[in-house]
Design goal:
Helices cover 48% and strands 13% of the residues. It is built from four helices and five strands, in the order E-E-H-E-E-E-H-H-H. Strands 2-1-5-3-4 form a five-stranded mixed β-sheet, covered by helices on one side. The protein is globular.
């Protein structure tokens, strides 16, 4: 008997402890596995905030799906993934590759500074939201993903190719989290 933890595009399977186990035990297992210290857990569209509450109190049963969303290290910092692409060193790069890297990092910085905090606010709120908020945020994330996808690094530009791949992965994970939350809230009758 296990639960599935969605972490970006990854699907992790964890053995389900006894139902009277506090959430902090599951959180500790996830911290050890992912090496991420600060994250939110979301189940059926609700953020799991009380680490002392039991899995039964959160209605976590075999087959449950939990979303793991990394959070900021500081309260006022934008939320970033622990798998943040590192800026490539300027040594040995062509002017064109450097310009492309700048474009990739600028797009990702925009997502992190404006869309990620908005997504986290939306996910953290237990109250229903106007469907337009979900659609708007989904559309903005999709536009960012399409802009990143349209960038075409040349085959020999390894730094730009890696940065683009990681940026696409991060934005796609945010979009997946939004889609999963919408589906979970719809299934739970919360719109």
């Amino acid at each position: 008997m296990s639960v599935t933890v969605k972490w970006g595009r990854e699907r992790l399977s964890f053995a389900l402890p006894a139902r009277d186990t506090p959430l902090k035990a599951l959180r500790q297992s996830l911290q050890e596995y992912t090496q991420i210290q600060d994250f939110k857990l979301i189940h059926k569209g609700a953020v799991l905030n009380d680490n002392n509450a039991t899995l039964a109190q959160y209605h976590i049963v075999p087959g449950s799906v939990i979303v793991l969303l990394p959070t900021a290290r500081a309260a006022d910092a934008p939320i970033v993934s622990d798998r943040e692409p590192e800026p490539a060193p300027a040594v040995g790069l062509t002017t064109e590759e450097s310009a492309l890297l700048t474009t990739i990092h600028t797009e990702l910085a925009t997502v992190r500074s404006s869309l990620t905090p908005e997504l986290n606010d939306l996910l953290a709120s237990p109250e229903p939201h106007d469907k337009k908020q979900y659609l708007r945020l989904g559309e903005l994330l999709l536009q960012s993903l399409l802009r990143l996808d349209a960038l075409a690094p040349q085959r020999e530009w390894e730094h730009a190719r890696t940065a683009r791949k990681e940026a696409v992965r991060e934005v796609q994970a945010l979009l997946d989290t939004l889609d999963d939350t919408i589906a979970a809230r719809k299934a739970a009758g919360v719109h």
